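Quick log. Single chain, no ligands specified.
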Amino acid sequence: VAGGASSRSLAWLNSARKRSAAYHRLRVAGLERYHAFAAKHDCGAWLRLDGGLTWDADDAANQIEEVFRHELAIGYETRLLAPGDIAAVTPGVDANAVSPQGAIFNAGEGWVDP
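-> predicted structure:
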């Protein structure tokens, strides 16, 4: 498990999972700014807005279904994917690494590569 930022860290741009309403709005506003900036500038070398994928371990603490319902309820763009459907959305992810409960794909998310 990661213990902090490093020179190899990515800056994730998202508002996935459960957050307070105020913090969610702040993070979505930040995402919107990155999207607007990317529409006007060539950012391909350091900014990716291809979406984000998240999943939980296959254990009693798995909250993927609950998180998916939460994201739907607040209007956050979200898709619940079965492991076998992941390659069509995010090529290169090993579906065997994803728990049977599936993964959530949030299309508007991305990352900054320092």
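The beta strands are 11-13, 47-48, 52-54, 79-81, 103-106, 110-112.
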